[in-house]
Amino acid sequence: MKILIIDDSKTMRNILRTTISRFFADLPQFFEAENGEEGYNLLKQHPDMTLVILDYNMPVMNGGMFLTKVREESAYNKVRIIMCTAEVKKGEVIEIVKKGVSGYVIKPFTPNTLRKTLQPIVERMGYTMREQTE
Question: What CATH number corresponds to the domain at position 15?
Fold first, then answer.
């Protein structure tokens, strides 16, 4: 499994990577980007990317712009995208969902909240998460 984490906060990227790593026996391969433009370039380099964890508010190219660009290209139809952001305006959430996200996590989140969002998505893709130990 290849996971791309796109967030302008290095701390948040570390939290996401560390938390998600605990969910899998076979460690995913992680890629990181500080903004949507860097993320899009990584996606082009790794068209077999499995999952993208995407922040909304970022410089250069925000999460909404990234999502629009990726969903316009059929080459990335199988990439699952989870929006993980503090953005909670109802209208913007509706637009994000319409653009094709597979899930939505609001920051701050708990590991259990992240697990509940990820689990059905990755299981539909054929991956198994570790049993919850909490």
Answer: 3.40.50.2300
Give the tens place of pLDDT for each residue, 44-68. Answer: 999 899 999 999 889 999 998 999 9
How is residue 19 written in tokens? 């938390």
Contact assessment for residue 23 and residue 43, using Cβ atoms and an 8 Å cutoff: no
Q: What angle do CA 19, 25, 28 make, to 5 degrees?
A: 65
pLDDT at residue 118 in the model:
94
Residue 93 lies in a domain: yes
Query: Is 79 part of any domain?
Result: yes
Which residue bears the tokens 């190219």?
61
Residue 67 to residue 15: CA distance in whole angstroms: 22
pLDDT recorded at residue 99: 78
CA distance 95 to 44: 24
Paired residues of 53 in beta bridges: 5, 82
Residue with tokens 């998600």, as numbered in its chain: 20
Average pLDDT, the chain: 90
Q: Is residue 7 situated within a structural domain?
A: yes
Q: Which pLDDT value is given to residue 90?
A: 66
Token pair for residue 59? 């410089």
